[in-house]
Structure formats: structure tokens, C-alpha cells
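Input set for joint prediction.
Command: fold jointly, output C-alpha cells.
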Amino acid sequence: TEGDILGSLYSKGVKPDGVQTLDKDMVKMICKDYDVEVIDADPYKVEGLVKRREILEEEDLDKLKDRPPVITIMGHVDHGKTTLLDHIRKTKVAASEAGGITQGIGAYKVQVPVDGKTLPCVFLDTPGHEAFGAMRARGASVTDICIIVVAADDGIRPQTNEAIAHAKAAGVPIIIAINKIDKDGANPDRVMQELSSIGLMPEDWGGDIPMVQISALQGQNVDDLLETVMLVAELQELKANPDRSAKGTVIEAGMDKSKGPFATFIVQNGSLRRGDIVVCGGAFGKVRALFDDGGKRVDVATPSIPVQVIGLNNVPVAGDVFEVVESLDTAREKAESRVMSLRDERISAKAGDGKVTLSSLA
Ligand code: GDP
Ligand code: MG
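C-alpha cells >
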């Protein structure tokens, strides 16, 4: 009853005064007490929440802390994705770290000044629909916000539509960067018209899609774009519980002649530490070393932070989920059973229509 809920609010330190807005965590907590499903009015968000719930567990709900947003840049070829990433990296990565950045671990952290504070956000370094699509086909969702770059002298092209479809399907909020406004023939208004005709109504025209006009080449308005990213992130209330064992997703992996198998993880919940035992896909091992996006050795990676991990027995696949487990035996068992189920799926996929899709491999 209403009385019970008011009572439990009191017990949590909230003094209800009749008309009051509760923040989402509070609502979630109450719903949890009453075993009621939280329904969010925004359809984009519902999907996002569902996905995040897979990563967050019940026990995390009262230990949540803010985490930085993870951002992917997509858009049609030649519309300026790489130029934008380069500009952000050059201007926003701390000078002390910039040297190491060139090696690249597939993601990097950027400090964005907002309202006199600087807040971190993380960019995935693999612009491209393949990466996003492949990860999604494998059930991975690491991205919190999608920037879609549209060239002001070219407008919506096939890969723009693809990018929009990917972002929508993943339930990820979209920010449009209308790029190349410095060029002769740039027509940002036409781009906005095209976008609104496919259902993306600019905020400036009363819609809900933020659109920022930039020149990635000259760096014009890129700060506005980043600030918009942080505003959208704030609305998403991105949180995780740093005080637990880590879970997350592999975004890049490979083999190094001297280091052996390496993988870049994005931690999505918990904190990953040197010495932890991890299983990811069919690979496992003890974390021998962690490197940040500047190539510097670190002891721990907190939620949303990308780290390169050394110590795995095998090379995992981008999109594989990783988790920390108790012992090497458990890790080995989990990795082996995963390899087995992969094999079974491949066999049954072959017996079926002969096609092996990404999702059947996931
Ligand atoms: P991507 O394929 O989306 O990664 O596009 P690129 O970043 O490689 O850019 C394609 C071309 O457009 C390059 O020659 C860039 O120099 C140019 N370009 C990118 N952004 C801008 C911009 O803001 N203004 C102008 N004039 N050219 C740009
Ligand atoms: Mg490029």
C-alpha cells in the first residue's frame, strides 16, 4: 500500500512530502523491495536498462557510483570520423599520456571540461559499423552514446542510415555531428531536413535529437559536441558498482610476439585488478599486467575504463564477455565448456542451412 511505500522511504532517509520526484535509483530500490518491474517511459532507455541489468546485479543496486560514458563514432565513409577522433585525441588527451597513445589499445579516455569541472569520457577507437554490428551480433553492448557524423556537403548516405539503424537497435542515444561546415557547399540546414524526414528531429526544431555543427578538420565547435555528449550522458545516469569483481567486454585482441595474447577490456561493472583470474570467451588466465590507454602500467581499472590485459592463455574475440572468477580451475572449466558449446553450435549450424552467422558463434 501507499503507507508501506512511504514507510520504506522514511527508512531509507527520504522524507516524503506528498509531491516529490524520486531519482531513478530510489525507484529501482523500492521496486526491488516490492518485486515490481521498473518500466521506463522512454523506449530507447528501456532497452538500454534491460541490457545494463544483465551487467548489473541486484546486489549492486545500492552501491552504484557514476561511471564515464562510452562513446562510439559512426557515419558514412569520408564524412570525417577519423578526423574527428584525431582532433579529440590530440586536444583532449593529457599531454603526459599523448606519447603512448600512438600504440593505441582500441579505446581512450578523454577529459571534457563541463561547468568548471572536467569529466572523463571514453571513446572507442574503432569507428565503423563492422565493429559495432559484429559486437551487437554477439550480444555485446558497450556503447552508451553514439555520435553519428554526417558531412554537411553530402547529407544522408547509405552508411548513415546503417549507423542510425545500429544505434536504434541497440537502444543507444544518438547525437548528430554535422561535419565539414567550413566547406563551400556545406548546407547544414538541408542535413537537418533530411534527418527530420527520417524521424530524427533536431532539438533546435523542438525534437529530441541533439545536433551540433562542427568542422572536425578545424576543430570548430568540437567542444560543444563534447559538452553535448556529457549532457546526454548525465541524463542516462550511467552507473556501476566499482566494489565488486569485474565484468565487461573484450573490444580488441591479438597476439604480441613478446607479450603473448593481449586483449583490451572495457570494464562494465566492478574493478579489474592485477592478479585477478579472468575468463573471457574460450580464453582464461591470471592478469599479469594491465596497461592504460597511454601504455602505462596500472593496478586497477574501474567501470568504463579500457585496459589492455596480459596473461591470457589464448586470444579472445572482440565482443566476448569477460568476468573475474575465484580460481584458475573454475576459469579453465568455464573456458572449456564455452569452447565446447561453440563447437556444438558450429556443427548444428552446419547441419542446418550451412551458414554460420556471427550470432550463432556468440
Ligand atoms: P572517415 O572515412 O569518416 O574516417 O573520414 P576522414 O576523417 O578520413 O575524412 C575524409 C576526408 O574529409 C579527409 O580528407 C578529411 O581531411 C576531410 N575532412 C574531414 N573533416 C573535415 C572538415 O570538417 N572539413 C573539411 N573541409 N574536410 C574534412
Ligand atoms: Mg576513417
